[in-house]
Structures are given as structure tokens and as C-alpha cells.
Amino acid sequence: MNTLSICAGYSGIELGVEKIIPDLNVVCYCEIEAFACCNLISKMEKGFLNPAPIWTDLKNFPTKKEFKEATGEDGFDLLTGGFP
What is the pLDDT of residues 64-78, one digit of tens each? Predict the structure, then answer.
């Protein structure tokens, strides 16, 4: 199951959802805060999170077609989000 994580923070919601849906795959993170983006990158590098692109402006998130062209992913089944 693919998910799009908006206002991702440190990806805590997705880590919790993975306990219920073990095959959860984050296809993209949307996060504007630089510290949170660095935290996500660090976790990806250490193998705690699956690698995925980070969009820094949710207002400019691409259309489904542009998203597929940019990432190779067909889309997502679930939308998860933290508090902005």
C-alpha cells in the first residue's frame, strides 16, 4: 500500500501505521521545515525509512501525471498527515 505523507515532520504517523499495515510504502513526503527535512533524510540514509522524494511546498505538489513522471509511482492509496 502506497501513502503520501503531508506535513510529515519526523514521519511518526507513518511509523505507527506500519505497525498495522506492514507493507506500507511512503512514495513521497511533503514537509516545509528544514530541520524536519534533514531529519527525514538522515533516517532514510540510516535505513530507518524507505527512500522517497521530499516536496517542500504542499501548495505546489504536482498533478497525478506529473507525480508519476517525476517518481515513476502510479500514485498512492492512503494520505497521512501531521499537524501543520
Answer: 777 777 777 777 888
Backbone angles phi, psi at 56, to 5 degrees: -100, 0
The answer to whether 43 touches 10, Cβ cutoff 8 Å, is yes
Cβ-based neighbour number of residue 24 at 10 Å: 18
What spatial distance separates the first Cα and last Cα of the chain, rounded to whole Å? 24
Q: Are 64 and 75 in contact (CB under 8 A)?
A: yes
Contacts (Cβ under 8 Å, ≥6 apart) of 16: none
Nearest to residue 4, comparing CAs of 61, 60, 45, 48? 61
Q: Which three cell numbers stand for residue 14?
A: 507513518
